[in-house]
Amino acid sequence: MGSGGALMATMPASSTSPSTQPPQTSLSLLLADDCTAGVWLRQQGGSTSGRYMQVACFQGHTDSVMRAAWSSDGRMVATGSSNGVVCLWQPVEAALTARRNLGHAGVRQLGALEGHPEEVYACLFLPPTSSSSDGGSASSSGGATPQRLVTASGESLFLWDVATQRQLQQVAPAPPPQAAAGEEYQVPERWRAGYLFGLAVQPDGPLLGAACSDGRLRLWSRDGGDASLSPLCTLPWNQAMGADCCFGLGGLFCAVSKDGSVVMMDVRQGACLQHLKLETPLLSCTLLPDGSGGQCLAAAGADGGVHFVDVTSGKVASLFPEEGPERPLLCATLSADGSTLAASGEAVVLGEHDLPAGETQEAAAAPGHQRAPKWSPIHVWQRALQR
């Protein structure tokens, strides 16, 4: 997927606790290629352009941080890196109300998950499931469902028990379907291994899905109260590298690719709802309610815009940042309540023309004055309330 960029992951809004976080704030993660993951706190009274302040920085990785995920309760973060290590950590309570950057002192590392064969291109916490008939979802003490983490590296998924930090399973995808007579698959040879990108979990069902480097879509099922994962099928889709995917309600499954292709399907019926192609590579996607009971796909594009595709009609509308130069957007994510959309862009090396007005190059190089060598734009949009 490339390096030199930044990805943003927004903490689920439903996990906000008045006892640990002031009202009208939100936390986000910003991943960089300097082996760190920053915790950014949205300030009270912040505008829709996103007044964010960094309050903590996780520095436990030794290689570029590729992916991040918040746990459903907002208390833990998983970050995956290029050297195949996933770190578990949490912001300390002081960072949630800080008025300055606490740096590494603002986080606490909980552990490291090793054993991935290559880069970690996806990680997510599985949402709790209801009790299964075999009792697999209950803990040994009769309490809540054990917390599970799923990571993706190479062609395989890895299932982890978060409490014990033990790997429960490594599961390969289902084999690809046989090509029809005379059909030749045109994905470049270097991507035919089917690396798993853009892992997603179904919010109202048992499925996991991935958009893959060989242009195919792969599905797995969550079994026995998340005691294991089972490969279901591999679906032909595209002849370009898949970039990301997401599930919606009612069996909706969507994916985007680096050639601009978009597919929307109903996994309950195996039916394709929309298949279209935009004029720009698409690198990330998320689903949001359209305000009238339907759903809309928001995809981050290499042209610097967020492109909205109506699930029913397939009509496309685009939104571009109002300020700053055009930079490819690598990630778009939605808050749990659907009110805020955040996107982060490709990092750029700062030059003299990027200095704030009135600041000279000599002043910027003065002792004790440190400027970040790179800048990663973060864009935040809030949905206008219907009156």
Detailed description of the structure:
The chain has 387 residues and is mainly beta. It has a single domain, classed as YVTN repeat-like/Quinoprotein amine dehydrogenase (Methylamine Dehydrogenase, Chain H). It is built from 2 helices and 29 strands. The strands form 8 sheets. It has a 4-stranded antiparallel sheet with strand order 1-2-3-4, with no helix packed on it. Strands 5-6-7-8 form a 4-stranded antiparallel sheet. Strands 9-10-11-12 form a 4-stranded antiparallel sheet, with no helix packed on it. This is DNA-binding isoform A. GO terms for molecular function: DNA binding. Keywords: DNA-binding, WD repeat.
End-to-end distance, in Å?
42 Å
Going by CATH, what is the homologous superfamily? YVTN repeat-like/Quinoprotein amine dehydrogenase
CATH topology: Methylamine Dehydrogenase, Chain H
Q: Largest sheet, described in full?
A: 4 strands, antiparallel
